[in-house]
Amino acid sequence: MSPRLRLHHLLLSILSALPTCPLDHSTPTSAAAAAAATASHHHVVTTLPGYDGKLPFRLETGYVAVDEEEHGAELFYYFVESESGDPRRDPLLLWLTGGARCSVLSGVFFEVGPVRLALEHHRPYDAGELPRLRYHPHGWTKAASVLFVDSPVGAGWSFSRHPDGYLVGDVSASLQLKHFLAKWISDHPEYLANPFYIGGDSYAGKIVPFLAQKISEDIEAGVRPIVDLKGYLVGNPVTGESIDFDSRVPYAHGVGIISDQLYETIMEHCQGEDYSNPKNAICRQALDRFNELLGESSGGHILYNYCIYDSDIDGSIQEKPKIPPFPPRECIGSVDEWLRCHNGDLPYSMDIKSNIKFHHNVTTKGYRALVYSGDHDAMIPFLGTQAWVRSLNFSVVDDWRAWHVDGQSAGFTITYMNNMTFATVKGGSHTVPEFEPERSLAMFKRWISNEPL
């Protein structure tokens, strides 16, 4: 059995352990009934397949309806309460996952969650055998309660009763998340006063500052419930600007992936060209060679072997084997199989062309921001991220310096006015906590506690 299918079977087993069905989806129901059922439907989960014994943290799962009057769309969530011992005071973090409708389980299992998959490659698996789960000592739930949400509709276990409910994009998905948060907080008033942050990486980094601005506008207008929004953080974030991808060329040159000659050819013949669709023949040939060389290693972490991901950062889907469907279950409704990232047959509108103005707007209002980059990511290189952060023209209050973990450099950082901090994480990938969990937790704990890195 392939690792992919083992993971698929594990996730199905986990789903069977989560009593999350908000409604009997086979039974017609009014929109009002759907909203009432979903708004209060959540369960605490104490055990998971593959994990020995009871979970050493509080895990809650559930569904929240986000357009019950129109399409019956519902967003699925995992809520992990802070493990620090003071969850009623600790920050509350809404965490989003990037990619093309990628499940937020990517964030739970591979990044900031309290458990990780323990795939044992040193021995063969019997058919149907599940990988094991292990406790993750560097999960971000050490410092905050984390609300993981499958968004947009169609990601993970989130679904719509009507096909038109899947017709979403950057703006509509963000507004659904705002609606989700209002309903979730209303149903969990004990967290209303907690310092609230929004976080995400990769493509979710495009959504986060826009969502922060929309929530801030509700706060200014007195729309209830009023969360205690403090700021946001984004990792290796997409902005929608060409700098995200154009910076791959100088990055690849700087780390020795391409030669001086190829770099100089691109710089000379590709100026003013769209790197994704160049019209100049010399530029096109040079970029073809560039992509060929860049593909010799993993774009997400240049020190690792090339891997085929379910989706590219821009949302396009690569060819991959389709996972066989499993028998329908009562609590899945219109969801008939689980994929880490959706296979691309659902439309999505990238209607936020650039989010840089939202970074400027939100931080100018006084909200805090952390922008961080794994320095081994060639998908959204730190060079491009550093460039657009500088383009905001904020004054420097703490100039470029190393930050440390256990007396050793863990990366480099600079802090600007308006409480914006940019940081690199040494050895970090496109998803920093995946490959540098200890350093990423140290960074997060310091920043979320208002301490300098």
TrEMBL record:
BP terms from Gene Ontology: proteolysis; secondary metabolic process
Entry similarity comment: Belongs to the peptidase S10 family.
Protein name: carboxypeptidase D
SUPFAM superfamilies: alpha/beta-Hydrolases (SSF53474)
Keyword Isomerase on entry: no
Pfam families membership: Peptidase_S10
One Gene Ontology molecular-function label: serine-type carboxypeptidase activity
Enzyme Commission number(s) from the entry: 3.4.16.6
